[in-house]
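Honest question from a wet-lab person: if I give you the sequences of every part of a complex, can you actually get the arrangement of the whole thing, not just the pieces? Trying it with mine:
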Amino acid sequence: MEQELIRRLLDFLNASPSCYHAVDNLVRRLEAAGYERLRESEPWTLRTGGNYYVVRGDSSLVAFRVPGGVPAGFMLAAAHSDSPTYKVREEAEILSAGNCVRLAVEPYGGMIARSWLDRPLSVAGRLAVRREGGIATRLVNVDRDLLVIPSVAIHLDREVNQGTALKANTDLLPLLGCGTERGRFRALLAEAAGVPGEDILSTELFLYPRSSAVTLGAEGELVASPRLDDLQCVFGCLEGFLAAKEGGSVPVLCVFNNEEVGSGTRQGADSTFLTDVLERVCAALGRDWPCMAANSFLVSADNAHAVHPAHPELSDGAERPVLNGGVVLKYNAGQKYTTDAVSAAVFREVCRAADVPVQRYSNRADLPGGSTLGNISSAHLSIPSVDIGLPQLAMHAAYEVAGSRDTALLVRAMTEYFSRSFRYLPDGTIQL
Ligand code: CO
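Yes, you can. This is the full assembly:
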């Protein structure tokens, strides 16, 4: 059972080279489970017992189920579809020294740049294409080893092991091949997408490492893959969402793009996407929005840092999550993580019922940490919220490492969570 789950996690990671592909895979899974697509541009009629999803910008998704009876509120979980990478410019080919053609790219998010060197890469994303009567988007993945970013030889850079800085505009442009002609890249895209080259109006393409997701370790206890942050949580939340029983609230799965660049886009967590959807659900169900919102809860799921075997000094005090040690509750006094006493208690009770161990993470007290989806969503939807994640190493490297047993623990915790509701009783007690 657990082996089968890990296999499906690896398949999902391998089939999701870009945020667009990740969301497309979620859509396929939801449709296979009987979910219907709602379009934001059309009126909605919702049925009791109906299963629905909405996509914005081809890369963010909100899925929900309408329960029987009068729902208390929304049980939400959010994770992100994007990962740090390099975005390929529209006019990509640059004729470079040494009879080389390279692609012009810009960093998307904060990656460990050196981890992208000297390994096979390719490109995936979406194209805007002309079609009969308008413009449509098409997924594209050049599904072969296509590119490489070559290091400078140590003989020409004796300081390379002393930590040489890599400049995004020179050192990190991938090599497409040899020659002095432009146009081959666009032809490859057209072929991969199955559209005539002249119909490609514009592109949104990202580099991805060709390395596959695999299990490693003496007993297969590790999983290594590009994009574990945050597709491991996306997968765990999806599985829990689909497996949950009806719990008297509206279960809502949210997957947002653009977390790695601050979420401030039309489909990011700092947009009106989620509240637009939830307000329309309330209206369609004839429910009072502020009341529904007050009886709602959000789990923001984004991977956490496990104690590094070579650098335990980077972890603080008792805040030492370990690989395969269970789901991590994330705390930050400055509220970059939204966890508070009440939301932590709610999540701990859910995990206790699911028999899932809970670990704690805080950034070392003298180090600033990253932020994530929870505090950004809170600006739009101010409800009790907890930040969680799975422990991993090498976050934002081209190839990351996590515990293979933790995924099943997250699925169990999220199945329990989505099977419940969160509501305030008249005396102020919270009923789960
Ligand atoms: Co993340």
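Two things worth pointing out. Residues 172 and 291 are 51 Å apart (CA to CA). The chain has two domains: 2-83+226-431, 85-209.
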